[in-house]
UniProtKB/TrEMBL annotation:
Protein's organism: Paspalum notatum var. saurae
Name the record gives this protein: phospholipase D
Keywords: Calcium, Hydrolase, Lipid degradation, Lipid metabolism, Metal-binding, Repeat
Keyword Chloroplast: no
Chain ranges of the PLD phosphodiesterase domain: 608-635
Catalytic activity as recorded in UniProt: a 1,2-diacyl-sn-glycero-3-phosphocholine + H2O = a 1,2-diacyl-sn-glycero-3-phosphate + choline + H(+)
PANTHER family with a match to the protein in the record: PHOSPHOLIPASE D
EC numbers, comma separated: 3.1.4.4
Amino acid sequence: MLAQQGFGKTTDQGQQQRASNRRLYATIGLDKVCVGRTRAIDAATTNDPQWKKEALHIYCAHSAMDVVITVVMTGAGDPAAASSTADATAVGYAYLPVEDMVGGMQVDRWLPVCDTRRRPLEGLDRVHVQVRFTDVSADPESRWDKGIGRPPVPFPGVPRTFFGQHRGCRVTLYQDAHAAATTPSSSSSSRCWEDVFDAIDKARRLVYIAGWSIDCDVTMVRDPRRPAQTLGQLLKKKAGQQVAVLVLVSTHGVLPGEGTAAYFQGSGVHCVLCRRGNAAAFTHQQKAVVVDSPHGLVGFVGGLDLCCGRYDTPEHPLFRTLGTVHRDDFFQPSFPGASVLKGGPREPWHDIHCRVEGPAARDVLDNFEQRWRKQGGGDSLLVDLPRRPAAVPDEAAANQNAAESWNVQVFRSIDSSAVAGFPEDPDEAARRGLVTGEEGAAVERSIQDAYIHAIRRARFFIYIESQYFLGSSQWWLPQQDAAAAAPEQNLAADATHLVAKELSLKIASKIRAGEWFRVYVVVPMWPEGEPESASTQAILDWQRRTMEMMYRDVALAMQARGIRGNPREYLSFFCLGNREAYSPGEYAAPERPELDSYYIRAQQARRFKINVHANTMIVDDEYIIVGSANINQRSMDGGRDSEMAVGAYQPQHLVTEYTEYRYSGYPRYQNEWVTLNRWARGQVHQFRLALWREHLGQAAAQAAGSELLNPESPSCMNRLNQAAQQHWDLYASDTFQGNLPGHLMAYPVGVSDRGELLETVIFFPDTKAWVFGSSSASANLPQIPTI
């Protein structure tokens, strides 16, 4: 959308005088959802203020009758508030009917500025707009249903992002913090923490770390054959070797970070505690490490913080490692007062991380440097590296046509309060995808853009793992609970990112086209923390409403196509859990949990959820997004939590089409040329299989066999649903006492053929925590910090 907005002269001279210290901006809304905002401009410099064709490119998955342009005046006499929402007053509204746009032609017109009853205002005449709506199927940038490699041109990367796509890179994908090479379910190289440790240890010039939490006492390498050394000891050693060791750690109410800074005081390690702007509720969630190596820069990006509780393996033990590798690393946030002295279960931790080498590693470095310049103390401590192609790791990766070469693009959610170097020129900012946030800051939300583009490109299936799954709240049904708040509490403006709606619309489009398509989503049984707490119950309520919105879309598409069945045949949600039989000689806790507590019930049942902290999406076994961003508004917004992710694919391992002549005998006219697909079988494919083998367990994975190779097929979805339901039944059983044969479990909600969620399980096992969450909790909690 291109907007060039000007106002007629105000006739009231006194009003002109009062406006002399004020600034103007405009917001663009679809129905009641704000989808864009201009910069604030000085209202006193001219009687005809303009935004000089400020370009706003807006992704749409909304239902609206009008595009509503709201003119806002703000910042009376206070330069600090001139671009913020403080003292903001809506001057008037201009309405552009959506029906005037749907043909795809550019609309160029002056619109009258009106009051809330659509009556033209006197003295503030018109606003000029240029708008073009492009249907997603006709948008060449979206590559709707074309995947990565289909004609007319190869995929150039997500458009309008701060960092572009790079060729000739290398990517290593990691499942969990550590997976031994002998683990059947692991990918080929999955010793993440050991690789991070070794990369830091081998660095000669720089070690830069950004994290939500950094634990100096954590031991990253737990191989008894290697010397034990904590992360803090390693970083101090590198600083003593004249390596520049710079650390950015988030500081907030949950985890202040003062202990980390105090540990490094006077050591040569420079540690800076960073707030996320002025909002105490939000945090820096980026998890990134970048170091130099003999072959260039190496970056690590993903979901794993370098702190306690994160070290785990694909087996995700509950009790049997409490006397060994988890003896000094017990983590259990769901039980008040939990400790290793009282015994397990510990909270298992499933995560996904990646290593990036080649030109894209420079973007990981640039992100850190931009943040350091803004919040860390300028340029003085940063290592001055020449910008040269030495970041390419070796000849194999440098050959852009090599079989194992990757194309990589770095994405972020962040704003100008946390980074330096955003362009001030509006045209350049638009080219880099920057938008204006609620407080006037320049905002990058390229992670959300990357998810939207990947979903729109998808042809066959999507697999998602996410710590949170809620959003597209403008499509949620109103609360039915009488105890809930009024309709304005339905969060129509608080969780409006498009990822959830894009998924359900994609499924619906495929159903209407009569094509196979499946979406698999893995989430934690409940978010990290006490399951009965108000915040957890609110998040579960919002998750329920998101799921129901999506299933409703799928059910309506099935009905329109005349398909009888259940929406879970196209969209299924899963969670992870474990049960562990007693082993002779295992750790014996000297103390006991409180009687009749959730803690002791879980201990007696020897079961617990596996926390899903991974945030990744795999599309058609071609493309993968790995990062820290959850599927919620905090992560996708850009003006809330800061996040980082990479999108990557192997150009030599894409889905391709070929034709084959099918001879079927008589009658001869049935013989024909048919178009078939040659499936992607590169490292993205192998990584998905490794994850599925980890989650399904050896028996279920072997039983599924070749069905796992084609996730778009009905038989594959049916196989996973059946195995997951069997695992849930064993997990929830009051009599089962063995080891759970697999971790993948059906999320404990039912789905009707009409897409309604059915309360088949009231409470999570061993708790009094509602599976559906609490609508009263979600209505009474502050929404923005939680959602």
